[in-house]
Amino acid sequence: MGLAVLVMGASGSGKSTSLRNFKPEEIGVLNVAGKPLPFRSGIRTANNVGYQMIYKVLKANKLRAYVIDDSQFLMSFEEMDSKKSGFEKFNSIGHNFIGLVRSISSITNDDTIVYFLHHTEVGDDGRIKAKTIGKLIDNHYTLEGLFSIVLLTEADKNSYTFTTQSQGYSTAKAPMGMFEPVMDNDLKAVDSTIRDYYEMKPIVDASEDAESEE
Fold first, then answer.
1. C-alpha 92: how far from chain center
2. Judging by DSSP bridges, how do beta strands 28-31 and 150-155 pair with one another?
3. DSSP 80-149
4. Secondary-structure class of domain 3-205 per CATH
5. What are the phi and psi torsion angles at 100 (to 5°)?
6. Parallel, antiparallel or unpaired: strands 65-69 and 113-118
7. Residue 111 to residues 36, 204, 209, Cα–Cα distance (Å)
8. What is the pLDDT of residues 3-33, one digit of tens each?
9. What is the pLDDT at residue 1?
10. 74: which DSSP letter?
11. What are the residue ranges spanned by the domains of the chain?
12. Closest listed residue to residue 115, CA positions, set 183, 61, 49, 68
């Protein structure tokens, strides 16, 4: 059963940069907006993807880690492109996005982690939350409730970090004892910690890694 992880933050807060320590053979990036990664890398990236391509790649499941970068644009682009209107439009948007999140556990293999890199907004209660479209998703679901792990990227002039617990001003969360409350925004380190905590296989087996270097 695969695991979905939400990494949320404002634009420029370090979401994509957190991928910098992955090796190219370790992770695949499904880039919804088609933006280049903010660092030089040989990481495999599929650009301008939609639901059809995302499902195709995840069902093939050739890797143990995937990133859906700028995942909120799946909702935004559907809102702009859809010829539907009113409740029908927003019901479709919610159905498609929530369906993707819920499907991760069933369409991917054990030991696969799918990271949703997602923009934030401020909710009605004043807390920082994952950005959605309209009120339909918020009224029927709490998006973060579909994830056991929600990390918040934050940046100041001195550092880029992950906040792993709510601290009262966000919807960040993680299982007890998994992470420190604040840590460096290194998603490779996060991936290793998750795999150790849940006793999942490493992102690449040592034998596979050796074969790739031959």
1. 21
2. unpaired
3. HH----HHHHHHHHHHHHHHHHHHHHHHS-TT-EEEEEE-EEE-TTS-EEE--STTHHHHH--GGGG-S-
4. alpha beta
5. -65, -50
6. parallel
7. 27, 10, 16
8. 999 999 999 999 999 999 999 999 999 999 9
9. 85
10. H
11. 3-205
12. 68
> How far are the Cα atoms of 17, 195, 196 from residue 202, in angstroms, in the given order?
22, 7, 8
Radius of gyration in angstroms for the set of CA atoms belonging to the chain, rounded to a whole number: 17
Neighbours of 24 (CB within 10 A): 12
With tokens 């050739």, the residue in question is 62
**pTM as predicted:** 0.93
Give the whole-angstrom CA distance, residue 12 versus residue 35.
13
* Torsion of the alpha carbons at 206, 61, 142 and 177, rounded to the nearest 10: -10
Q: How far apart are CA 158 and CA 182, in angstroms?
A: 14
36 by DSSP, 3-state: which? coil
pLDDT in tens, 161-192: 999 999 889 999 999 999 999 999 999 999 99
Q: What is the mean pLDDT of residues 83-101?
A: 86
